[in-house]
Design brief:
The structure is a homodimer. The first copy, chain A, is of the alpha+beta class. Chain A is elongated. Chain A starts with a helix and ends in an 8-residue tail after the last strand. Chain A has five helices and five strands. Chain A folds into two domains: 4-44, Arc Repressor Mutant, subunit A (Orthogonal Bundle); 57-131, Lrp/AsnC effector binding domain/regulation of amino acid metabolism (RAM) domain (Alpha-Beta Plaits). The structure holds a DNA duplex. Chains A, B: GO terms for molecular function: sequence-specific DNA binding.
Chain lengths: 145, 145
DNA sequence: TGCGCCGGTCGATGTCATCAAGCATTTTTC
DNA sequence: GAAAAATGCTTGATGACATCGACCGGCGCA
């Protein structure tokens, strides 16, 4: 699926996506045009969805994170989903199997803010929140086969 | 904390971190050197932690995702944490308050693989897994104040 | 009022991305 | 099994870009 050079390119770009093509090329042992061509194909194949920036929420004042499980009351599933999407402090949310229909990550500046946000959901769903104390595994790639 | 130009720079880079300085500059209405200077300071301030690539796990064969809650048995907390860190299919894991000590995201190619991985934890912790059916909120930034 | 600082522009210079041409190796086809 | 075609690479030329120094205007402050 990915050969060794592709893997090293992806791993290199995960560390610094704004590296020059020239440097990327020499790190994986290719010429710039070849690296450019491979990069283009990784994007075309959908392996690389895009290039982005890693922003630290804490540096923006969001010193707290919570993982919130949400179980909409009967008939409220769509309302709740819309509500979640409209609350920008949810930086991600998954719809999952099981009783807890949604699991989301909330970035907040205080416990107060958590309370305010959950109040908006409280009459449409049961919620269960856990404050993030540490991140033993920071965002990383699964193994590149 | 962030002025309007900073915000637009960050938002632009979230969309495409490999854009040229020149284009970034003209999108926010600055000259290239000014944009370069601001970018450098956003990194120095820790607002921007780095530039990275958005890899699609599905394109690598990881067509399934699970959210796993993990409650280590008494005395097993550190062993479990080490184990989680060593399992590369965990793309992220948070240590949280409450009974479920850890919440992680697992990328797997089949239900079989889920079973295999959870077996490695089973004698040290209780786990509760939910398969991700959809992602109503894809990874996004909290509001930039 | 005058001084110094901050954040900006402009223009020159060296680095980089990109394109076309060509080459070696592998795959396909008859 | 040999000719043809397709891959994937390199090199060198050209135009675009990042970066640096010099300079400028507005603002806070003694």
């Amino acid at each position: 699926m990915l050969d060794d050079i592709d893997r090293r390119m992806v791993e290199t770009l995960v560390e610094d996506a704004r590296i020059s093509l020239k440097e990327l090329a020499q790190r994986v042992g290719l010429s710039s045009p070849s690296a450019s061509e491979r990069l283009k194909r990784l994007e075309e194949r959908g392996v690389i969805r895009g290039f982005t920036v890693d922003v630290d929420p804490a540096a923006l004042g969001y010193t707290l994170q919570a993982i919130v499980r949400i179980r909409p009351l009967p008939g409220k599933l769509h309302v709740v989903q819309d509500l979640i999407q409209q609350i920008p402090q949810f930086s991600e949310c998954d719809k999952v199997t099981g009783d807890d229909c949604f699991v989301g990550r909330l970035h907040i500046r205080s416990i107060d803010e958590l309370d305010t946000i959950l109040d908006r959901i409280a009459d449409k769903a049961e919620t269960s929140s856990s404050i993030v104390k540490a991140q033993p595994v920071k965002r990383r790639l699964p193994p590149l086969l």
